[in-house]
Amino acid sequence: MTPKDKIKAFEEIARIFGISNESAKYFLNHVQKSFKVERPPHKLILEFVEKQTYPYQPTPYDVASAMKESGVWNYDLGSPPPALEDEDDIYQ
User: Fold this and answer.
1) For 57-91, how does the pLDDT look when each residue is reduced to its tens digit (9 = 90+)?
2) 17, 27 in Cβ contact below 8 A?
3) What is the pLDDT of residues 28-60, one digit of tens each?
């Protein structure tokens, strides 16, 4: 077994994006949840992300969408999450 095999997918995602292990687990789970039924394994998500050159951390849905578009995981996506909108500052 090579040292790479001992590294968990979330640990590598954490390193790539400079986020905590907990955030990386959340990210991977939400990439999976972006698909309706068939969910890609964490290892496949990691392999896909490693081949991309993201200038910033993409959203989990963006990764899922890119995986589907490229044919890496050709299963139906769920609805995209609602866009976050800035709330008006009522204290101004």
Assistant:
1) 999 999 999 999 999 999 999 998 887 665 555 55
2) yes
3) 999 999 999 999 999 999 999 999 988 889 999
Which one, of 89, 76, 4, lies nearest residue 40 by Cα? 76
Write the burial class of residue 1 (CB in 10 Å: 0-12 exposed, 13-18 middle, 19+ buried). exposed
Which token pair is 81? 């999450």
70, two tokens: 């490229």
Q: Quick check: 57 and 17 in contact, CB under 8 A? A: yes
Q: Residue 77 class from Cβ within 10 Å (0-12 exposed, 13-18 middle, 19+ buried)?
A: middle
Q: Is the dihedral of CA 23, 20, 5, 71 positive or negative?
A: positive
Measured in whole angstroms, how far is the alpha carbon of residue 50 from the centre of its chain? 11
CA distance 10 to 22: 8
Distance CA 81, CA 77 (A): 11
